[in-house]
Write a structure and sequence with these properties.
This protein has five helices and no strands. The chain has 97 residues and is mostly helical.
Length: 97
Amino acid sequence: MIVNNFIISQIQTQQANFAMLYTVHLKGDNLVQFLIDWDKMMLGLTFLPDDMLLEHIFRIQIEDCPPIKRDLLDYEKAVHKGEQERSYQYLYKLVQD
């Protein structure tokens, strides 16, 4: 019984963390505020999701941002050609710079 409650608690925590990933949105092309909001959200997580999930959610949020649109297209081309692996850290640095 205690083990079941622990497992249920872990699942609920993971679901809450997963939902938090979708609470931060890029407004207009304000990348500075987006990163501030994203970093605050990440600090509130009780576990760090894997890089693939972070890359996917982060990319969805920034993919239509005009100031980095060209860089993102280059990133996608490099990924599709096998010249680069998908990387949350790469996208984060792209937005940060």
